[in-house]
Design goal:
The chain is 46% helix and 12% strand. The chain has 202 residues and is of the alpha/beta class.
């Protein structure tokens, strides 16, 4: 999967970038989240460190200048480096329900920005990291690993619609994982490469 994700289809300078979205289907306990973690590992080896590792290093005292990294990515479009970012749908659904419980309107668009801002509020990263993520997102520079669409329960259709009607149409690189029965396949059939993950052997 990761060589496909790292392909630069061109057209970025003209405001056109088409990424190939991928849906990975597998039964419970088959290894969907493990597959996502392995993708992070391989992307880290071929590109840059994944965000989780950068944040760990920052906490351990390494000063990482995220805003300068984002600026460098803009200045070197021909050597643009994509950055993996995992969105756990179960966590996303919990955040959306919290908004509803507070009596506020639940967001239905731009859920990636919503997720990034929520992680900032939880202290998972700081303002520099948030700015870098949002800038990369705007530049179509985040590989969005959306793990466990089926785990959104009553919000599953909202998440599916956002992925297939917004993220994909806007040209974001996306990999989605779900149980086979957890997605409306007709929404993914037109644009996505659909893969079925075999169970891990013992």
């Amino acid at each position: 999967l990761f060589p496909l994700l790292l392909q630069e289809p061109g057209g970025r300078a003209n405001g056109r970038k088409q990424a190939q979205p991928i849906l990975i289907r597998a039964g419970p306990g088959t290894g969907k989240t493990w597959c996502v973690m392995q993708l992070l590992f391989f992307l880290a080896r071929t590109q840059t460190l994944p965000l989780s590792e950068r944040f760990r290093m920052a906490k351990e005292g390494f000063r990482l200048r995220f805003k300068y990294l984002a600026r460098d990515l803009q200045d070197h479009a021909t050597r643009f480096q994509l950055t993996p970012y995992v969105i756990y749908v179960q966590k996303l659904a919990q955040l959306l329900r919290n908004v509803a419980r507070e009596g506020k309107d639940m967001p239905r668009k731009d859920l990636v920005r919503f997720y990034i801002h929520a992680q900032l509020k939880e202290g998972i990263f700081g303002e520099d990291e948030k700015s870098m993520l949002l800038q990369l997102y705007q530049m179509r520079g985040l590989i969005l690993l959306v793990d466990g669409v089926d785990e959104a329960a009553d919000l599953k259709e909202l998440v599916e619609d956002y992925i297939t009607k917004d993220l994909v149409k806007e040209g974001h690189p996306v990999i989605v994982t779900s149980r086979p029965e957890g997605v409306r396949l007709r929404l993914f059939a037109a644009d996505f490469v659909i893969m079925n993950l075999d169970a891990l052997t013992k």
